[in-house]
Every structure is written in structure tokens, then in C-alpha cells.
Specification:
This protein is of the alpha+beta class. It contains 7 helices and 6 strands. Strand 1 and strand 2 form a beta hairpin.
Length: about 220
């Protein structure tokens, strides 16, 4: 009799197992790779350094989650709970951003894009141009920036990116930086390259992320 009861209990527990495995509470951390990849993609489009979009919650993904939580007034846990995932999804709906990007290589090659609808489009286009202008594709690095479109259209706000290359007897260098004006962007990059004298440097390009530098 006891053996029969044990068999029924075991069968009942086996039936419950898949239900319990999927019944996550809002504070349980998500581990499903598809949901993790979706969260990583959203964080990436918020211009956070999320690391590879691979469905694995690594150190860089947790750092990106913490930055997003701090930026939006949530507790900095770095955990992708169901509650955080839902808030990420809601925050990403209906966003209308203007993106621009600059990519540079150490051999003075560069590429730029502006007035793009996503970070991925902006970065890919700038990288593609830089790689065409560089001996080796891996030399190109890229920086992207965005603003909500309504701030550009109705409040005349903008963001500028500049790229500067330098060379002296000790080596070569280059950097990308941004600011609220072309002058601010250029000044910021020169500060980052302070180990070079200004006469050893050359401004490669400066762009407005909405393309207004063309006017």
C-alpha cells in the first residue's frame, strides 16, 4: 500500500515540476536566453555597454542593468528580474530617437553616420565606412550618441561628435568625444589627447547627430 502511495506522490510531483519551473514571481531573476537577449538589445539601444548580446547575463550586462536602474530611479541590483524586464520593455516602446556615430582607426581613417533611427544602424554605417578606409578592419572603434527627436525638433537641442588624430615621435593616437556644440566636442577630445601638442593633432571631422552640420 505504501509503495502505491509513494508512486502517486512521485507522479504528482513530476506533474508539478514544469509548472513550478515556469511560475516565476516578479522578483525572480530571468534566465531564459531569448528574454535575456531581448533585454540586452534594449539596454544596447539605450547606449549602454551591455557586452555581447548572447542571452547570458554576464558582468557587463549586470553593469548595464545597474546603470539603467540608477538612471531611472530604481534600486541598483544589476538583476534582470521579471519586474525589471517588464519596465525595460515599457521604456523601449514608442521611442523616437535620432542617432549619430563616429568611427576612427589609428591610421587616420574614419567614418560617420547621422540621423539614423537606431544605435545599431548608426554604428554599423560608421564602422563600414571606417573599415573601407583602413588597412585592417579590426582597427576601427566606434562611438554613438542619441537624443529624443522632439528635443531636436521643438527645443533646438543637438549633440555633436568629433574625431581627432595625433602623431608625434612617441607614437600615434586618436579619440572621439562629444558635446552640446561643435566647439565643446572638439575641446573635449583635445583634453583626452593632452599627451600630444595641438600642432601634432588634426581634426578629422565633426558632426551633428541630426546631420545639421551639412547646412
Amino acid at each position: 500500500m505504501s509503495k502505491t502511495i509513494s508512486s502517486w506522490v512521485l507522479a504528482f510531483l513530476l506533474l508539478l515540476t514544469p509548472i513550478c519551473a515556469h511560475a516565476n514571481g516578479e522578483n525572480d531573476e530571468i534566465t531564459d536566453p531569448i528574454q535575456v537577449m531581448e533585454a540586452q538589445e534594449i539596454l544596447y539601444e539605450f547606449n549602454l555597454k551591455v557586452g555581447p548580446i548572447d542571452g547570458v547575463i554576464g558582468v557587463r550586462t549586470r553593469e548595464a542593468l545597474s546603470q539603467w536602474q540608477k538612471r531611472n530611479g530604481y534600486s541598483k541590483t544589476g538583476e534582470l528580474t521579471l519586474k525589471v524586464f517588464d519596465h525595460l520593455r515599457i521604456a523601449s516602446v514608442g521611442n523616437d530617437y535620432v542617432w549619430g556615430a563616429l568611427s576612427i582607426s589609428t591610421n587616420r581613417g574614419w567614418g560617420a553616420s547621422w540621423n539614423e533611427k537606431s544605435r545599431r544602424e548608426a554604428e554599423n554605417k560608421a564602422l563600414e565606412i571606417c573599415q573601407r578606409n583602413s588597412p585592417t578592419r579590426h582597427q576601427c572603434t566606434v562611438v554613438a550618441m542619441y537624443l529624443p527627436r522632439h528635443l531636436i525638433d521643438h527645443y533646438d537641442m543637438n549633440f555633436w561628435l568629433s574625431a581627432i588624430h595625433c602623431r608625434n615621435s612617441h607614437g600615434i593616437g586618436g579619440s572621439i568625444g562629444g558635446g552640446k556644440s561643435s566647439e565643446a566636442a572638439i575641446s573635449y577630445v583635445f583634453k583626452r589627447l593632452s599627451r600630444f601638442k595641438k600642432e601634432q593633432c588634426q581634426l578629422s571631422t565633426v558632426i551633428a547627430i541630426d546631420g545639421s552640420h551639412l547646412k
